[in-house]
Amino acid sequence: MRYESAKNLKNSDFKRSYGVYFDTFKDMVKVVKVERMLKKKTGRKDKLTIEDQVLMTLSYWREYRTYFHTGQDWEINESTAYRIIRRVEDMLIQSGLFALSGKKKLIEPDSEIKTIVIDVTEHEVERPKKAVRPRCGFRS
């Protein structure tokens, strides 16, 4: 879904689709626009608007699909999707406005927890190795 159609969603539906409220999305777009204006841009014009780039990043974070599939949805190359997502991530991290609280904040007695993040990536599970059984053979 491109920005032109996503901006017409209700705030709750936007949050369901992209994981953040529309106001937070607008703040993210402002940060990326300021960073892009400060950097000297050379080369071709971007195929996606800044709003679409932030939406693509949010949808990638929300669904954790491969860059190939993300690129297919946004009609760009896999490597371009990777570069855009990485660049937007770096800009948002460097701004410091969208950081999550650390462990120390959680253990403070007077802290109020507003967000909990759980890492649900796949991990290999150690399983006991199967015992090697001797083959049935001739007895001497």
Structure characterization notes:
With 140 residues, this protein is mainly α. It has helices at 3-6, 11-18, 22-38, 50-63, 67-74, 78-95, 103-107. The longest helix is centred in the middle third of the chain and has 18 residues, at 78-95. The model has no long low-confidence stretch (mean pLDDT 81).
What does the overall shape look like?
Answer: extended
Q: Which structural class do you get from the secondary structure elements?
A: mainly alpha
Fraction in beta strands? under 5%
Counted by DSSP, the helix tally is 7
Care to count the β-strands?
0
Main sheet makeup: none
Helical content stands at 40-55%
- Oligomer state of the chains in this structure: single chain
Along the chain, the helix and strand elements come as HHHHHHH
Distance N to C terminus: 74 Å
Low-confidence runs (pLDDT<50, min 5 residues)? none
**Integer average pLDDT:** 81
Brief digest:
The protein has 140 residues and is an all-alpha fold.
List the helices and strands and how they pair.
Elements: H1 3-6, H2 11-18, H3 22-38, H4 50-63, H5 67-74, H6 78-95, H7 103-107
What key attributes describe this structure?
about 140 residues, mainly alpha, about 55% helix
